[in-house]
Amino acid sequence: xxxxxxxxxxxxxxxxxxxxxxxxxxxNSSRRTGFALWMDHLRxxxxxxxxxxxxxxxxxxxxxxxxxxxQNRMQWTHVVLTIAALDTACLFDFTKTYKDFHDLYNQVxxxxxNIPFARGILTRYDISLxxxxxxxxxxxxxxxxxxxxxxxxxxxxxxxxxxxxxxNAFPKAFHVLSCMQLEDVLCxxxxxxxxxxxxxxxxxxxxxxYKIRNKIILINLLNNAVKQMNxxxxxxxxxxxxxxxx
Length: 246
Fold this sequence. Notes:
With 246 residues, the chain is mainly α.
């Protein structure tokens, strides 16, 4: 039976950190981490909207904030409801300022509290982080937010706090990372931390799921979902709540 990295390797953490940072900071897009590329894509999409001032470009930006990263499989009816809820709370106003990231996270949580798919820590964290990246005055996490795989990775590192953990609770080798980078590392190297794959060097350009899709296709899918919802006679659409996305 394979053992977690923390038990078998006496911490090959520097290798993980160095490999991750090399990929995160790589100027070659084919070798950058998915998360770094996604940050670039969000910022480029915002710049496109600021330049064009077109409604479709702003709508595309809102879609990216909600249906990015781990939320690729979110049903489009839920995407519509989430965007509407965030709009109502003025959370797509990128000129707003927040006390800190957790203030933004709490506001996103409150706005989406009635949308089952958007109640999970991971979904709220991703949406909050995407909005945070786009703010005129960005706010970034000052704690590591844990959910699902990242929580299991943290436990393999003997970090049992949940769901928000200070960076200094993790082994010292990880302290050169930002909190959002460490969250990505805990996801990217999940199988390594749990001992499913102990060959750290075999993982290159590792990343969680970040798919960049065509703007026109995404807007059409969103509009189709709106039309579908308008044909429903009841006030609320039927939800399919998947616990795996908590």
